[in-house]
Design a protein that fits this description.
Blueprint (H helix, E strand, L loop, with lengths): L8 H11 L2 H4 L9 E4 L3 E5 L9 E5 L11 H22 L3 E5 L16 E6 L6 H6 L8 H15 L1
Antiparallel strand pairs: 1-2, 2-3, 3-5, 4-5
Helix pairs in contact: 3-5
Length: 159
């Protein structure tokens, strides 16, 4: 297996272990946690270790681990935020499609298991290249800060 030296990740790893849930820490409009927008029932933020450019996480505001722990109004709020997030990505990045999914439990691939969240990963025709195939490395073409500003600006124009 190839290894990518990423010493900047250690602060992220330490902060999760020491300070609790990354989704609960993400409160506040100007959060350093890449929050795009919040509603009464959902928080939308950029994944700081994205699979692809524009990888967004949509989580309920309340700290719950499973879908069956959500109240009906939280389910509706979560999926309203998911829909809004997809529209923002359509406007800003114009992807050809999406991978949208939920990983429940470590065995299902969840990196953060205590707080339910939905992944939205924009996809483009031909968005894979030789880097992952030959080197097992994904290239992300835009900074998180730049993308966060674009998405927040697009969100502000819709409200």
């Amino acid at each position: 297996m190839n290894k990518l030296w990423a010493p900047w990740r250690i602060n992220y790893i330490r902060n999760i272990k020491q300070k609790g849930c990354v989704f609960c820490k993400g409160k506040g409009k100007d959060s350093k946690a890449c929050v795009i927008f919040e509603t009464d029932y959902a928080r939308v933020m950029l994944n700081i270790f994205p699979y692809n450019n524009g990888h967004i996480l949509v989580a309920p505001v309340r700290h719950v681990a499973r879908l069956d722990q959500l109240k009906q109004k939280e389910v509706l709020g979560l999926f309203a935020a998911l829909t809004k997030s997809q529209k923002l990505l359509d406007k800003v990045l114009k992807p050809n499609g999406y991978n949208i999914g939920i990983n429940l439990s470590r065995s299902a691939g969840a990196g953060i298991t205590g707080h339910l969240h939905i992944h939205i990963v924009p996809r483009w025709i031909g968005d894979t290249n030789f880097m992952p195939v030959l080197f097992g490395t994904k290239v992300i073409s835009q900074s998180l800060d730049e993308l966060r500003k674009q998405l927040k600006n697009a969100y502000a124009k819709t409200n």
